[in-house]
Design a protein that fits this description.
The protein is of the alpha+beta class. The protein has one domain: Glutaredoxin, CATH 3.40.30. A hairpin with a 2-residue loop joins strand 3 and strand 4. The two termini are 13 Å apart.
């Protein structure tokens, strides 16, 4: 099962990334768990300075933007 986390403060981009990543994972037919992380201390643990950030399992795969649906699918399916 994949762990997908969205690191962000709850801004519009953060919510958009959460929804898009959720949709991408569903379209890929993955077993996954989604989580929104709003704790700034967690951002620091991942080395994230700009949000929103996408973490798949334990790896930060995107930060500072909302990737296209195709790109999200690539990042999530790795």
């Amino acid at each position: 099962m994949k762990s997908i986390k969205i690191l962000g403060t709850g801004c519009t981009k953060c919510n958009k990334l959460y929804e898009a990543a959720d949709q991408a994972a569903k379209e890929l037919g993955l077993e996954y768990e989604m989580e929104k992380v709003t704790d700034m201390n967690e951002f620091v643990k991942y080395g994230v300075m700009v949000t929103p950030a996408l973490v798949v399992n334990t790896e930060v795969v995107s930060a500072g933007s909302v990737p296209s649906m195709d790109k999200l699918k690539q990042l999530i399916s790795k």
